[in-house]
């Protein structure tokens, strides 16, 4: 298939954001081009134009770690096939430090992780938002009201006749997760889970069902006009629309646990808890932190399952705006709509530790 590039635009923008009384000046440049092998490559450059050192969370400079690009075809968002992770809240070593005048430049192949299979104009920009983007201040309990930090670039445009995702990177596409391995009582396993791991997963799934049932019961017995500390801590001020969103999300999570063919994969060696491909229900990849967690409690195995199931587009389609309890509490205060889009907020509401009525 031929790939015709009609237009490539590289635009530079200086975005100045207020963060703890500092004004980081980051020059963001994005260019997009088709390589000779048919890949569509985006080159990202972030330059610190401020006078002092600027930190940026490393996850938001790596497409294999986060959904860092907005890609649209003819003005409509295209499907993203990459993973969503549950991580520990970031610490200082997770940030890249840019000195004054220093640049970070990386190139990423897009067509393996974005649906670029149809002909049209594709608009690509760097577009990230997080309460952790410039620091781990979300972990500071004294921080009362914190805004979601955002960094974006103008658009680079490329015209394509269409390109199919290739190879193993295609596994995030719907229906491409591969067949399940052995199954026990309707729960299936891939990635060479050993007997001990299978036992732990089955027990954790039962615990996830328990805390999800508790969440559904709470939401059924309360309303937008009758919330309590449990709801307000994790989701903030309630409106009818927001409350209905929470109800729908937990009904869908509960349905996934009770009625859907959930598969767990034990092959991940990352330090994270787990990850999923949102377009590939209902397969959950379990990583090292999952096995080290308690079955119940804060950042538990049961809570991790709730977190990951909420990511699936067929369930709640949540994102990872912030990680950790302190950040999630601050998000509920500063932006309740984003709290209802945050997977950790759903997990902490379900785990309910410390216990709140």
Notes on the structure:
26% of the residues lie in helices and 24% in strands. Helix 2 packs across helix 6 (325-334). Strands 7-16-17-15-14-13 form a 6-stranded mixed beta sheet. The protein is globular, with a radius of gyration of 21 Å. It is of the alpha+beta class and 357 residues long. A hairpin with a 2-residue loop joins strand 13 and strand 14 (187-190). It has 2 domains: 26-160, Immunoglobulin-like; 183-351, 3-Layer(aba) Sandwich (Collagenase (Catalytic Domain)). InterPro entries: Fungal_M35_metalloproteases (IPR050414), Lys_MEP (IPR029463), M35_peptidyl-Lys (IPR034115), MetalloPept_cat_dom_sf (IPR024079).
Concise summary:
With 357 residues, this protein is α+β, with helices and mostly antiparallel strands. It contains 8 helices and 17 strands.
CATH class of the largest domain: Alpha Beta
Percent strand:
15-25%
Order of helices and strands: EEEEEEEEEEEEEEHHHEEEHHHHH
Low-confidence stretches: 1-23, 138-145, 175-179
Protein name: Peptidase M35
InterPro entries: Fungal_M35_metalloproteases, Lys_MEP, M35_peptidyl-Lys, MetalloPept_cat_dom_sf
Cofactor: Zn(2+)
Keywords: Hydrolase, Metal-binding, Metalloprotease, Protease, Signal, Zinc
Name a few traits of the molecule.
alpha+beta, 17 strands, disordered N terminus, Immunoglobulin-like, 357 residues, Collagenase (Catalytic Domain)
